[in-house]
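ok trying this again, last paste got cut off
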Amino acid sequence: MPATVILSDTLRSPEMRRELPLAMVDPAIYIERGGERKAWVTGFELERVAGVSDLHSVGLEELGLDELTAQGMSHQDAIHKVAIVRACESMGVTDAVVPRGFPLEAAEAMIAAGISVHADGAEFDRRRRAKTPDQVAGIRRAQRACESAMEAVRAVLRRDSPTSEDLHAAIAHAFIDAGMIPTPAIASHGPQVASVHDNGSGAILPGESVVVDIFPIDPVSGCYSDMTRTFCVGEPSEELLRYHALVAEALERSTAAAGPGVPCSAVFAAAADVFEQAGFPTLRTKKPEEVLDRGFLHGLGHGVGLEIHEAPYLHLADDPLLPGDVITLEPGCYRPGFGGCRLEDIALITEDGCEVLTDYRYDLAP
């Protein structure tokens, strides 16, 4: 069996954050082989790591880092070109599996030392799918913060002449007040909405749809939540009302379909059926190589955890949902030049069903 090898800090690598569940800005080396788990970390992180993990942790100094830097080698080169090889050799590693983001220069050093290196991102995705109790608790905290931020959004939209910039500021303040780490929110309106990931800018006009998609990070667990609601200042058009009704129905049907062992494609189909029956295109109906710009033009959702987008992905693939998955359900309907509507909840797949973690209303009126 190949050994599992990770080299990174825990802020840039969700794979490392899973093994060392704390915020750590300096690089560490993690190796798992034959049931033994060991991490080499900076000396001043040893006590923190020991407090959150059951693995054997030692200082990077054990790998001769002081000697290497005294010889003029940079700290990064010492870790990537020498220490990683010494760590592998100390555990008898001759064959290593690494995540997608593993440093190339470290892989080259390992290969030059006779160690086989294989990237297997899918395997690391599988390792992260079942959320720990601490991660679920962090996602719940982040989701409560999302709901507070949506209340702040409603308050801004009730003012005279609101702008997307006003919404961005209100969302960031709400997240900071809740102890979360803000991320760049989507607060788009009118035709911007049809661009789906447009962050939004400018004055919000009466009758336009306003799509607010927010995803803060819980600093304790490092996990995200994800939530979207659509609003309208003033009277919504008949088109927006139709979109909103279809999206709400698709959300309800897909939530009812989700559960352990259910293929992701079946959950997606529960939503796609709603739009296709109403005459809108979906990923199932588009021609090969066609880029959809209207209708239900994206997948239904994705996993959420140490990354905002992670496995599983709820579209055409038959990958079954597993207990411990945390997923989004976010159907939408769009038209260029008009905008559109999206609603998004987050849910935990349990041993016997699907627990919706979002607790917030869906109405258009702010």
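PB: full thing came through this time. The chain has ten helices and 16 strands.
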